[in-house]
Amino acid sequence: MIRQNIRLLHVGQPLWNTVRLNKSVLAKLRKKTGYTFSNCKKALELHNNDLEQAEKWLKEQAQALGWSKATKLEGRPTLQGVVAVSVDKNSSTIVEVNCETDFVARNKNFQSLVRTIADACAHFTKKQPLVSPITKLTSERLKCLPAEDGKLLVDHMALHIGNLGENLSLRRAFCFLAEEGVTLAGYTHPAAPIQTGTLLGKYGALVALRENSPEPHIDKAPGQLSTEQLGKQLCQHIV
User: What secondary structure does DSSP assign to 71-91, as a single string?
Assistant: First the structure.
């Protein structure tokens, strides 16, 4: 019996990856994107440790996965969520975004999404003519609003559905434009440690107050609340 030794040769790309992974770049990519170690490693290997290209590839993959997962999870009840309240001079917004569990509602990535949505609504509000003080944005209208990066909110939602693994829904938003002489105040509960910027909570309220012109002969009583303080207290009673 004759045993023949056969050696197969080829000059194509080797089956194993020869890219030497840069651990520093890997750490930066994980911190910047929040994606898993294995996904970040794969992205850097595919793009020769190019941080920018690896991040772009990860986002494209996540977006595709998000749309696929959003389709699969559509219809699952979203009974938890976050209310965002934003007040800036004469404009304000209150937004409700829902998820499936309280665990995701407390997730930093989900809350970052809610802030992105609130910012988009605030930008929309400031561009509106002062015809009607209150504008209601339905779920379908919210999906079509652009975020600061130019992407539609519906795309941001799909991306986070893929990342978080839960169904998410843009429930509704109300935008308020105040005319001169009207003070706006907002509050969320549980109250955030710092009551500035966009406030997040399980419940939220937004009020508008018009202060009557004081009589010239009547002085302000000591300890009397300002209009802003009164507005905040009213919101606290509402929630």
Answer: HHHTTS---EEEEEEEEETTE
Instruction: Please say if the pLDDT value at position 75 is more than 80.
Output: yes
Tokens encoding 185: 């105040």
Query: What are the start-end ranges of the E strands in the chain?
Result: 80-88, 91-99, 134-137, 169-177, 182-189, 199-201, 203-210
Contact 169, 139 (CB under 8 A): yes
| Beta-strand relationship, 182-189 and 80-88 | unpaired
Smallest CA-to-CA distance from 159 within 40, 60, 53 is with 60
φ, ψ at 188 (rounded to 5°): -130, 155
SS3 (DSSP) at 221: coil
State the chain's mean pLDDT as an integer.
83
**Comparison of pLDDT for 211 and 41, the residue scoring more:** 41
- Name residue, tokens 């302000």: 220
| CATH classification at residue 89 | 3.30.479.20
Domain annotation covers residue 54: yes
Q: Who has greater pLDDT, 67 or 82?
A: 82
Quick check: 100 and 166 in contact, CB under 8 A? yes
Residue from 160, 151, 58, 73 nearest 114 by CA: 160
